[in-house]
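DM from R.C. (forwarded with permission)

"hey, sorry to bug you on a friday — could you get me a structure for this? deadline for the figure draft is monday and I only need the backbone to look sensible"
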Amino acid sequence: MDAVRTRSPADLELADETFMSAAELGAYTAKLKAAKAMKALKAEDQASQARAELIKTLSKTIELTPEKVQDKLRVAAEQGKNELLVMRFPNAMCTDSGRAINNAEADWPDTLTGRPRQAYEFWRERLRPLGYGLSAMIVDWPDGMPGDVGFFLTWVKLHV
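My reply, with the result:
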């Protein structure tokens, strides 16, 4: 009967790599998971900072004129469309995080703040009299929750 031979660590080498023990492999896996989690956390933090900066920017009013959207409207009409996304903003620009918009409540404009409010008022005073409609809807659902809001200018497409 042959004696049981134990292998030396040198016998456990694959090419020029030393074979990892189960504990070493577990530690390596844990380090990879930790690195991925840190990377995801950093990306999430950067996204959060960018979102906060966007909200701060959108809280300030700007000068609005029909010329700012006229070229985009013309292109959309030439493509046979009858609506155009003219503004997208975080639901944080609504006092109720977009709940009234999502539920199509009649008073949803009252929840708007900053530039979205300014855009709505511009539509109401300048574009609605010209026959344009405005629809607002939640356009993004991160993790199943309401996210960004979109404003769409609409118009009747006449068939000639």
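R.C.: lifesaver. The chain has four helices and five strands.
me: no worries. Residues 67-154 form one domain.
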